[in-house]
Amino acid sequence: MTVTDRFLEYVKFDTQSDELTNLTPSTPGQMVFAQYLKEQLETMGLEEITLDDNGYLMATLPANTDKADVPVVGFIAHLDTSPDMSGKHVRPRIVKNYDGTDILLNAEQNIVLSPQEFPELLNYLGQDLIVTDGTTLLGADDKAGIAEIISAVAWMQAHPEVKHGKVRIGFNPDEEIGLGAHKFDVERFGCDFAYTMDGGAVGELEYENFNAASAVVTFKGRNVHPGTAKHKMINSIRVANQFILMLPRWETPEHTEGYEGFYHLVGVEGTVEKTELRYIIRDHDRARFESRKREIEHLVRKTNYEFPDCASVEINDQYYNMREKIEPVMHIIEVAERAMRDAGIEPKVQPIRGGTDGAQLSFKGLPCPNIFAGGENFHGRYEFVAIPSMEKATDVIVNICRILAD
Predict the structure, then answer these.
(1) Strand 348-349, strand 204-206: pairing
(2) Around Cβ 21, how many Cβ atoms within 10 Å?
């Protein structure tokens, strides 16, 4: 069974997470998928297989070397897909030997994946691509990672001449809603360090990520018949709009890159009497991150100066930049770089403009940088993954295990 076979099977499972359920896993489909994977791992003969009530699946590939000093390494991927777009009834299609032209995803709805809009497509000339039918996301984030990890383990089982230490694998729910590591039992996982297989294009290696927080700003209005509303009505929607315009226009995702942080308005729900704005706040620099949170609080106070007791805010930190936890153990980055070069890949060390479970796990005592899984255009209908990218990621996992046992 190839990594492609596994991936095409896995994307059939609807595992879209939902931040509103307050459950773990947040949706039942994730547990269904976890149980399916558990049965696969049992059939493969792995050991120490556990699946807890929260949907955290762990297993062990035992060491095949007598060396006593080989570190225990883990590989982690998440079960869920993004709430941003439906992951139900995913219909993947393989585009053979991509020739650089437009890819018609859906003729009926005229949905086209074009290199004019997504120039990264031209990096995959001559390769086989897996795309969607334009009505759902694909799920390479992170079912490609799961397929790669299991394929690497299967390869090592079939090639006992390649020595490796104890390898742990972990699949967790709810990464896409920021909760993937919350109930991850690091002690039970029992690794010296781990890697999440949750990055994008080939070569990506990441140990810096955003500091992240969510902010919910609520505005209370006063509804009066519009015919007699003068000096009486307070329209919470208009007040909220005024608040939106007070934040820096250019510090938004569509105007930033690299290490630049942002405020991102991700949801608006309102009536005259009550309006709620949902933001995410991101910055790689911890001091600027704290400053951004203070700015939100300052603008709430400013709003209340004009409209007394109208505005309130709730800010919650989500995760922090893992760099401070990785720098003391930089040899794990060097191992990943060597593993990539041994697979014919030049590492691309760069900051994550987002977060992974590895960030939270690093702060829970498990250093956990992020390695590419191969997909592009995550979270939407234009998502795709190149088959050679998944094969290379599988090679990198094997190489890491081999190097550590060297």
Answers:
(1) parallel
(2) 13
pLDDT greater than 80 at residue 157: yes
Residue 139 falls in which region: left (phi positive, over 0), alpha (psi -120 to 50) or beta: left
Per this entry, what is the length of the chain? Answer: 406
Tokens in use for 130?
């897996």
In which residue are the tokens 């009497």 written? 273
What digits encode the pLDDT tens for the residues 71-100? 999 999 999 999 999 999 999 999 999 999
Closest CA to 138 of 196, 93, 78: 93
Q: What percent of the chain has pLDDT over 90?
A: 96
Q: Please spell the DSSP secondary structure of 34-56, one letter per residue.
A: HHHHHHHHHHHT-EEEEE-TTS-
Mean pLDDT (whole number) for 201-206? 96
Which stretches within 76-212 are classed as H helix?
140-158, 186-189
CB count within 10 Å of CB 325 equals 21
How far is 371 from 352, CA to CA, in rounded Å? 11
Q: Are 144 and 375 in contact (CB under 8 A)?
A: yes
Beta strands (DSSP E) in 201-331 are: 204-206, 211-220, 262-270, 274-283, 311-319
* Active-site annotation, residues: 80, 175
For residue 383, how many other CB atoms are within 10 A of its CB?
25
- CA nearest neighbour of 381 among 180, 103, 187: 103
**Cα–Cα distances in Å, from 59 out to 39, 169, 327?**
11, 5, 28
Average the pLDDT over 337-361 and give the result. 93
Residue 79: both structure tokens together = 């079960």
Give tens-digit pLDDT for 105-132. 999 999 999 999 999 999 999 999 999 9
In this predicted model, what pLDDT tens digit does every residue of 392-403 receive, in sequence order? 999 999 999 999
Q: By CB neighbour count within 10 A (0-12 exposed, 13-18 middle, 19+ buried), where does 1 fall?
A: exposed
Beta strands 47-51 and 57-61 are: antiparallel
* Distance between CA atoms of residues 383 and 138, nearest Å: 6
Q: How confident is the model at residue 340, as a pLDDT?
A: 98
| Contact present, 34 and 171 (Cβ < 8 Å) | yes
